[in-house]
Amino acid sequence: MHYQGESWGYYMPTSSMPSDTMERVVKLASESAVVIFSLSSCCMCHAVKRLFCGMGVNPTVYELDQDLRGKEMERALMRLLGNSQAVPVVFIGGKLIGSMDRVMASHINGTLVPLLKEAGALWL
Amino acid sequence: MAIYEQFHHISRWGDAFNVDNSPNTGSSTIVPADVRLNNKAEYISCEQVEPSISDQETNKPADKIQRRLAQNREAARKSRLRKKAYVQQLESSRLKLAQLEQELERARQQGIYKSGASGAGGFGLPATVNSGITAFEMEYTHWVEEQNRQICELRTALAAHVTDIELRILVESGLNHYCNLFRMKADAAKADVFYLISGIWRTSAERFFHWIGGFRPSEILNVVVPQIEPLTDQQHLEVCNLRQSSQQAEDALSQGVDKLQQSLAEDVASGLCSGNYRAQMVAAIDKLEGLENFVSQADHLRQQTLQQMVRILTTRQAARGFLAMGEYFHRLRALSSLWAARPRESA
Question: Which pTM was predicted?
Answer without folding.
Answer: 0.71
